[in-house]
Amino acid sequence: MTVPPGRRERKKAATRQKIADTALRLFLERGYDAVGIREVATEADVAVTTLFSHFASKEALVFEQDEDFEHRLTRAVTGRAPHEPLVPALQHEIRALVRHCTGDGAAPVWRMIDASPALRKYEESMRLRHAETLAAAIAGDPGLPQTATAARTLARFVIDAYALAREAADPEASLDEIFQMIEAAWAAAEPARHA
Question: I need a labelling partner for 176 at 20 to 30 A (CA). Which of 35, 91, 147, 185 fits?
């Protein structure tokens, strides 16, 4: 049974969301480079130190769901039922992430990210970190006997699937096509995983 968050946790989460929403609104209105951290803090009615207690950098304000996405990917591996196949569980989670990142209002955010070298660099480092975290979860699953290389390869493919589908004209069809290839590659690696 999950214990509901207490008052302090709810208040902290609300403050974090207020900061992120304020930052995104300002970035979209005036441009990412034109808005400083102090302006975000002032507009959100928090101290700069409070802002930095929730977000490690200005770039992190744009990717405020980063940690949640990483945890969700890990849970897709560690939280699946015994004998539930791995690749479909990952596909289900990536589909949910792609829907979130291609939903209403997402296009201006992605245009802003694409226009900013700092945000593109941050996104790339975030994707690599997600792939490493996912690979560790796969490698740590005793029900998935495989090499470290197989775990890292699958994780990279899954993270790349997210990026490719998010950019596709038809994200759903793209995911289906990509995950057919991922499933085939994972099945082909089976002898090496059991060797």
Answer: 147
